[in-house]
């Protein structure tokens, strides 16, 4: 596969957008015009001389530096498309062992270098984007540490190199009859070390848990030395080092080996899509199922706006009209929502789960029928393809981004409405409409994640387009920060969410994080500006934007 | 209920030991002679003048100070029985609100006082036992903060005062149709705040999880101010403050309010006991069930020695002989093990679980029949009565203690054998035999807890009896510390396990804990010596013992 240098995924894959889908978007946001993309050559020509002293593991070629300069956040996307990168790392290293990572950390200390750990480069929150610095910046790409190093079948624990991406995690396990079961939407590119470092969650978290439940131990290289976290099933002996290192996003150290709890491949896995008459019915049904502990592997509820959009983007017009007529015949009007769910286990387990699920869905007016199975299968085949949508809409001048949070059940409706409304109205003063829709996709007895997607028009320039995004992001993030919610349920903090972290953690929580980072890395050499804001950000443009975000966040906290 | 001042639980309850049970113990450890108990009056007479300045919330009466001086560890037990307490707190406060706890912390800072948080006083690892100090010591008993303060039925989150003991947690929830489902063996006395502070686990962790999975947030009063941890279902925004505060055992602060995830009372709950032909069959069966994710609420496997002992202690001789004959007819000889399990849920869920469970148990030679149900019911009625056994055996001069750990499945047999053998041989040089047996009671896909009980003879003096215990505890703890295991799966660290913590956490893990405690409490005012050893322990006798333990632990680590 050839990986796109300035967008998502495999160059050979293009996600088609049906004409009636595009018309639907335009009917909300108006006609759109594309911006011009920069070429890789023009960007490579901008790369300045490296400030890094020579080292056998460090590559300073322009293309390596361009390809490691940005992740997949919306600002990253604009940088890659406009060619206006701002900052490049001074070099990239591709270590193959923990001891080479140690060697690189020693080199960084010796030569006063900043270090950014890089997994799949899929961050949507600025984790791996370098900030301008007086010091040279080294990106450590763990992609060559991609092997299943050990599999203990009795204890069902697998050890992987931290740079192993989703497909290589699963294929190496599948060859032995096992699965990890961690399927974030970024799965094709994101890595097991990145999942741990940023606490990700996968689509089948209902069966397999979040990465927190899978992470059994491993090795982290820090500036103070190697930290080996043993695999112990559970312990009451003080706070768990797994929980303290997970989510540190490279600030305490770099994971080089990750041990995870794996599961034997299930005998059977099935996905279904049903339609629910309205939001309350859909939400109540999934809450009931998760609170009654019915074994399932995933649930997702698209609100009416998302159901409508997805049906337009996922079907041809003729198919859509047939389905729409059928659903209306069944009494499902414009308020209908879409509920996708999956069961994974033995055939017997799935059969008994399905019996319970269908009873609950039916009691809330769910309609599935023969379509449920077919649409479930379509969902499962396209489950990692959504990120490719940005590529397609971009060529039409349609910008798309997502944001996500989680909150308790009693707050779901209010927060979803507030986030959607913040986005829908954020650009009204500029005369711009925004198309917004939401789903719940990670269910807990206590609450759920909320995942919102929004389309807006590219402006006439890159700068103005970025400005539109900033308004949208700030408004929605401020709503989340004051909404009994997390600034990120599954994407991490990175640089984009760092200003909002104090609202979630509180003063003493921030003190805990700062104290640990300060102790492990007093020079702020490890991924500075990520998770915790850099005290003296060098890049002034970036700094001004941060400052504005911070003020918004503070007004929320205060 | 009148609570025993020098032992476990309700004064009116006595656990009888059948004659053939006592004979079995004596057949291993020999004839025994009881030691003489001190009276409460004689201990009260020893209590020195309080060093605490007057405060309206602080009580300095001798009986309060005696009743808060010790927990339920074996050394605590000997202290309470001999009357040789060593150190008493200088006073006890019974706050009724978070703000009163704050007030007490301010008082402690102002008057240079050490603070020990006290829940149910059930620690078996020395958490609440004061160390001798130049500073006055105040024990804060949270027992008056025992109310269900709020129940959010939609999000299934309950807020409790941190001092609420197990029975009051459950009765207040049951009145509303809910359960927490946390049932440690100490449940009758231990409190929700203590469970969180020391990361406890209950008998039905297979359904409800450990306290880590239940703890949704709450309030902790620290010397730096109040830390409110919000209820968020899940977050990728950096390390989770719940995980950082849980298990801190009072070193960072005192939990005053605890929010927990609750569950609607199940339609049905059933327990069963079956016999398995041998250890390998029993262990393999429970591993298969948990790794296949069959929904259950508890499993416990007693090894052959425990099965034999429990049947002798739990039945009359005639009953035992009938059962033994039946089992031998079924081909179950001396190697037979006992497997207790439970299902909790809707009737339909339980039916489908039981179908899967019985199939697996049968495939490994399990025998239950009509007895399974009756014995399961007997287990569930006696489930919190085991701690009363110490009271009964003590009057015969039989000392009993337990220790527990957890490890991965591939290490279970080796570690169990090593711990049992360390205990069985620990007193051989003194010509003493020890009776040892083990069960697994908390199952994870990765491994299991190991819970070992041992009986030994009281010596002719309290000092010598304590010395015997020290040898036993040190030998077994050293085996655990070098055995890919935790020094405690469910009892916490306290003071007794603190010397072994470095073997589990490693140098950098210990650095993390020390850094946080140092930042929150630079004067080591909060529960000093618990979790992390006190740098300059004052009590010389205690100190010498610790030193010996530490050296043992270090030889293990090194």
Description:
Two copies of one chain form a homodimer. Chain A is α+β, with helices and mostly antiparallel strands. Among the domains of chain A are: about 35-140, Uridine Diphospho-n-acetylenolpyruvylglucosamine Reductase, domain 2 (2-Layer Sandwich); about 150-265, 2-Layer Sandwich (Uridine Diphospho-n-acetylenolpyruvylglucosamine Reductase, domain 3), CATH 3.30.465; about 270-385, Alpha-Beta Plaits (2-Layer Sandwich). In chain A, about 40% of the residues lie in helices and about 20% in strands. In chain A, the strands form four sheets. In chain A, strands 12-14-13-16-17-15 form a six-stranded antiparallel beta sheet. Chain A has a five-stranded antiparallel beta sheet with strand order 5-6-10-8-9. In chain A, strand 16 and strand 17 (about 445-455) form a beta hairpin. In chain A, helix 1 crosses helix 12 (about 305-315) and helix 17 runs antiparallel to helix 18. The termini of chain A are far apart. In chain A, about 55% of the residues are buried. At the A-B interface, strand 9, helix 10, strand 11, helix 14 and strand 15 of A face strand 9, helix 10, strand 11, helix 14 and strand 15 of B.
Brief overview, please?
The structure is a homodimer of 558-residue chains. Chain A is of the alpha+beta class and 558 residues long. Chain A has 20 helices and 17 strands.
Count of alpha/pi helices of chain A: 20
Largest interface: A-B, 92 and 93 residues
Overall form of chain A: globular
Per DSSP E runs of 2 or more residues, the count of β-strands of chain A stands at 17
Rg of chain A computed from alpha carbons, rounded to a whole number of angstroms: 23 Å
Q: What's the CATH architecture name of the domain at 148-264 in chain A?
A: 2-Layer Sandwich
**Low-pLDDT regions of chain A:** 536-544
Distance between the termini of chain A: 49 Å
- Give the mean pLDDT of chain A: 95
CATH uppermost class of the domain at 148-264 in chain A? Alpha Beta
- The percent range for helix content of chain A is 25-40%
- Determine the oligomeric state from the structure: homodimer
CATH topology of the domain at 148-264 in chain A: Uridine Diphospho-n-acetylenolpyruvylglucosamine Reductase, domain 3
Describe the biggest sheet of chain A? 6 strands, antiparallel
Strand order of the largest sheet of chain A: 12-14-13-16-17-15
Query: Beta-strand percentage of chain A?
Result: 15-25%
Structural class of chain A: alpha+beta
